[in-house]
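Review this today:
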Amino acid sequence: MALQVAQDLGVHPGSTATGFPPGVVLGEIHLADAVALQAKNDLTTAYNDAAGRTPFTNLPAELGGLTLTEGVYRIGAAQLTGTLTLDAQNNPAAVFIFQIASTLTTASNSSVVLVNGASACNVYWQVGSSATLGTGTDFVGNILAQTSITLNTGADLQGRALAQTGRGGDPGHQRHHRAGPRPAEPVAPAPPPRPGSPRVRRRPPRPGSRPEPPRGSRPEPRRGSRRARRRARRPGGPPAR
């Protein structure tokens, strides 16, 4: 399978994007233009921000088998063998930042799994040198590398691959996805009215019209009507008019 980028591809400086084609870009390609330059400057800002976040928790080199909650984590050289689980604990705004002093390397068929509302957009991998995703790796997050990023055959990235001084490489056939913000959840339609309780709209009374009597009451009979005369003959009724 040829390299596929789901959104945009940019290079700055440089006027070519190696591997495209045969790679496919579903978004836009920016080669040494203003958009690519702005992205490069934004990367520098994001990289320095991620690297300076505190407080942090130190982790061992091997990340496989761990389940982590929201926070900042510092590692010398990171290795992922197996599965790393990121648990947002039902907080969709949970942010995970990994400060890696040197390299990030994943073994073949490794994976990062998001649970309980965790979002790939809120995962950041600040890498001091280079990142290499092994064959068949299923990875998530924004990789901010100082030097280069390599995705091997069949590696899948749900996020962004952003390298400062080197390149984001493709030494074989692979899939590469750059994920943007998640689409908004659909809004459920209002439930229909319950049977037997239709909505009734009352029109305002016209000027000069009689007010509408309360429900269940009977209007007063008109003066001189047959009903008024019968009512007057009843014991205790009002006198006839």
User: Anything to note?
Assistant: The radius of gyration is 35 Å. The helical segments are 34-51, 226-233. Residues 4-178 form one domain. The CA atoms of residues 82 and 159 lie 19 Å apart.
